[in-house]
UniProtKB/TrEMBL annotation:
PROSITE patterns: FBOX. SMART domains: FBOX. Residues 30-79 form the F-box domain. It comes from Macleaya cordata. This is F-box domain. InterPro entries: F-box-assoc_dom_typ3, F-box-assoc_interact_dom, F-box-like_dom_sf, F-box_dom, SCF_F-box_component. The lineage of its organism: Eukaryota, Viridiplantae, Streptophyta, Embryophyta, Tracheophyta.
Length: 467
């Protein structure tokens, strides 16, 4: 109730400020006695949604100058993220694990769900906010579409002017995408990574990972990659595992890590021999609990790359899914995702039913690095949802977010969004962007807008225009 009232007041305040913008600008030079201390202004702005902060910056030069002055440090960006469930969800474990998870899930449930949709040639952002508490809402013309579930905004930037891309991940407002460049001869893919923040309009290109192009028999099979945040060092990392095939070794992966802003480029972390199964396209890692996770379906387990020690660890899948899988399916029957702050495994059964399992820590264990494998064993799986899908069993339903009232947002057949209500077992179609997403390139992921600056992280970022 209190949050709804505060949001209504903010809407009305911004609407009034916009309608009187001319008067504010004309009198700004004569109202120095009305100015608040900078630290109070920054504190107030950090409590507002991103969109409201942008509006405040447009109508008041003083507020705008305060925000611009903080661009070089990410001080305001980090403060804003912590108060809106961003950095909180990425924290490593606190001393009290229960406190950590309770806070994580509370923040995830309290915030409206932001979404990034990636089409063949465009990138879109949208919100899902199914707050039915309208008692204190102020319905003026400007905010009449505040709760629209099917409206998405196209993000204009230079990447999609050249070729398609795929989402690697979204973390604290930064979106990482991979651009596949197919060579004229052979099947060796050269991938570039692209990272942007739609709010700050900053972007960077990262070169593709290093590989031996001189070996004519070194045929690329595919890449596993991921994007995550290490809170203890305030570092954002891109991880790749590039798999090649030659006469002597099959599916031998080279691991490389790129840390944003450290100036070291790609760091070689050696090779791995995990039998991930058939790799024919880019597979993204799922970030949760300070690590990136991938499925090893051939051995029935999950592989985690810890961003702190930059080492691989493994732990079993839930009992129905821990059996090694054989064959070459068109669609894998399992995938990983994050819902409400938990790492989840989605099991697509043959009877057109989807089971969603979440893993949670059940007991404390030594934090010694040598105990990392045992630490993963202290987590246990529980089945949270079972969803009966409509139509044929080969329909693709990818869970991407958990809304605050319990709805599961799913990406259906790479084409449109669906909100599934576990209480009523009903679903609602939310958005369809037409032909742009009706192809194999259509992807979706949860996202939180932020003011995080790539330049402040140490990258030589460029800016793109919004028009």
């Amino acid at each position: 109730m209190g949050f709804s009232l505060l949001r209504s007041i903010i809407r009305k305040l911004i609407s009034t400020c916009i309608s009187t913008k001319r008067e504010v600008e004309e009198s700004e030079e004569n109202d120095d006695h009305l100015l608040l201390p900078a630290e109070i202004i920054i504190d107030i702005l950090s409590r507002l949604p991103v969109e409201s902060v942008l509006e405040c910056g447009r109508v008041c030069k003083t507020w705008r100058n305060h925000l611009l002055a903080l661009n070089d440090t990410n001080y305001f960006a980090n403060m804003h993220l912590r108060r809106h469930g961003g950095l909180l969800l990425q924290l490593q474990q606190l001393d009290d694990d229960d406190q950590y998870h309770n806070q994580s899930n509370a923040a995830a449930a309290a915030a409206k769900v932001g979404l990034i949709l990636c089409g063949k040639r465009n990138l879109y952002y949208g919100d899902y906010d199914n707050d039915d508490d309208d008692e204190n809402n102020i319905h003026d013309e400007k905010f009449s579409n505040y709760k629209m579930k099917t409206s998405f905004t196209k993000i204009n930037h230079p990447l999609f002017d050249t070729e398609p891309a795929d989402i690697v991940g979204s973390c604290n407002g930064l979106i990482c995408l991979s651009v596949r460049r197919r060579r004229l001869l052979g099947y060796n893919n050269r991938d570039l990574f692209y990272i942007c923040n739609p709010i700050t309009r900053e972007y960077i290109y990262l070169p593709g990972p290093i590989m031996d192009d001189d070996d004519p028999e070194n045929l690329g099979i595919g890449m596993l990659c991921g994007f995550g945040y290490l809170q203890s060092t305030n570092e954002y990392k891109v991880v790749t595992m590039y798999y090649c095939r030659n006469d002597t070794q099959l599916f031998l992966g080279r691991v490389e890590v790129y840390t944003l802003g450290d100036g070291n480029g790609w760091r070689n972390k050696g090779e791995i021999t995990y039998s991930w199964g058939p790799i024919c396209f880019i597979s993204k890692g799922v970030f949760a609990n300070g690590a990136l996770h991938w499925l090893d379906i051939k051995d029935g387990k999950i592989i985690a790359f810890d961003l702190a020690d930059e080492e691989f660890h493994s732990f079993p899948s839930p009992p129905p899914c821990d059996v090694p899988f054989s064959g070459v399916p068109r669609r894998f029957p399992q995938e990983l995702c994050v819902l409400g702050g938990w790492l989840c495994l989605v099991h697509k059964r043959e009877d057109a039913c989807i089971d969603i399992w979440s893993i949670k820590k059940t007991k404390s264990i030594s934090n010694d690095d040598d105990m990392k494998e045992q630490e993963y064993q202290s987590w246990s799986w529980s089945r949270e949802f079972s969803i009966r899908t409509k139509g044929r069993g080969n329909s693709i339903c990818q869970p991407i977010a958990l809304a605050k009232r319990g709805e599961i947002l799913m990406w259906y057949n790479f084409a449109y969004l669906v909100a599934y209500d576990p209480r009523s077992t009903t679903s609602e179609k939310l958005g369809d962007l037409g032909r742009d997403l009706h192809c194999c390139y259509g992807r979706a992921t949860s996202h939180i807008n932020s003011f995080l600056s790539l330049k402040a992280l140490g990258e030589d970022a460029k800016n793109f225009r919004t028009s």
